[in-house]
TrEMBL record:
One of its GO terms (biological process) is negative regulation of DNA-templated transcription. Pfam families: ATP-cone, Zn_ribbon_NrdR. HAMAP family: NrdR. The gene is nrdR. It comes from the Bacteria. Binds 1 zinc ion. Residues 1-21, 148-170 are annotated as: Disordered. Negatively regulates transcription of bacterial ribonucleotide reductase nrd genes and operons by binding to NrdR-boxes. Belongs to the NrdR family. Keywords: ATP-binding, DNA-binding, Metal-binding, Nucleotide-binding, Repressor, Transcription, Transcription regulation, Zinc, Zinc-finger. This is Transcriptional repressor NrdR.
Length: 170
């Protein structure tokens, strides 16, 4: 590490500490030449892939846009903020694990639909109807049938409403 005061490349680390989360390392350094002290920080620098849109344009990944899309699909649905944030985290982890500098927007859309399908079927259908830009009712019906074809949980099982009661528990 080059000294910021005299520019000499010979510095010594005098103290090293991690923050509580363990994602930042703070190092106190001393310049061998001028004896001045300074602090450096090490942080993980992960780069999200750029998104290649259908028209070929490239754009930077936007966390807020992804979260906003999920929130819109989940609007007025019984899904917690924590579940939404966990879904966004899983999508972002998957994007990073791909190790690609660019991914097609279609791939990102498929990851979003996969997460929505697990979270809430209605939100999944909402998102799919906009994302896939259905040309007619038959395409919409096909997605509804796909969701309905999945095996249902037994009555009263955790996370599922009892079919003998309406939305208000009556």
């Amino acid at each position: 590490m080059k000294c910021p005061f005299c520019g000499d490349p010979n510095t010594q680390v005098t103290d090293t500490r991690e923050n509580e989360d363990g994602d930042v390392v703070r190092r106190r350094r001393r310049c061998v030449k001028c004896d001045k002290r300074f602090t450096t920080y090490e942080r993980i620098d992960l780069k999200m892939p750029h998104i290649v849109k259908r028209n070929g344009n490239r754009t930077e990944y936007d966390h807020a846009k992804l979260a906003g899309s999920l929130k819109l699909a989940l609007r007025k649905r019984p899904v917690t903020t924590e579940a939404l944030e966990a879904a966004v985290d899983r999508i972002e982890a998957r994007l990073l694990s791909l190790g690609e500098p660019e991914i097609p927007s279609e791939r990102l859309g498929e990851l979003v639909m996969k997460e929505l399908k697990k979270l809430d079927k209605v939100a999944y259908i909402r998102f799919a109807s906009v994302y896939r830009n259905f040309a007619d009712v038959d395409e919409f019906s096909e997605v509804v049938r796909e969701v309905q074809a999945r095996p249902r949980r037994r009555k009263g099982q955790a996370g599922q409403p009892d079919p003998e009661h309406d939305l208000f528990g009556n």
